[in-house]
Amino acid sequence: MKTILTILLALSMTTVHAATTEVQAESCDQIREQIRAHTGMPAKPNTILLGKVGANKKCRFTSAEAYRAAWGDKPLPKDDRRDRRSKGREHGDE
Fold first, then answer.
1. Which class for 69: exposed (0-12), middle (13-18), buried (19 or more C-beta within 10 A)?
2. What is the domain range of residue 46?
3. Tens place of pLDDT for every residue, the chain, 94 residues?
4. Does residue 2 sit within a domain?
5. Could you tell me if 80 and 49 are in contact, meaning their C-beta atoms sit under 8 angstroms apart?
6. CB 3.0-4.6 Å disulfide test: which of 1, 42, 45, 90 passes with 70?
7. In contact, 70 and 34? CB cutoff 8 Å
8. Is the model's pTM score more than 0.85?
9. Which ranges of the chain would DSSP assign to H, the alpha helix?
């Protein structure tokens, strides 16, 4: 049983290490090009590209780049601050 667990642990560590070196092998410009190429409106976020953005702190990606990496051309959700501020208040002229 210990042998099986040791083998599984070794395989999982190899997979993590391979994924980490793959992310680090790409330059900031290459990742930015992948972000620009991510078009359309996906049903689910692109977690692979978003992982590359999160793993490369030295590239200093903007929040807009991170959003585009995840959601492509999907528009940002509307942020109507006036509605949030006035929520729960009564607006009577009394």
1. buried
2. 24-74
3. 655 655 655 665 544 444 555 545 789 999 999 999 988 888 899 999 999 999 988 999 999 999 999 999 888 777 766 666 666 666 555 5
4. no
5. no
6. 45
7. no
8. no
9. 2-25, 28-37, 47-55, 63-71, 81-86
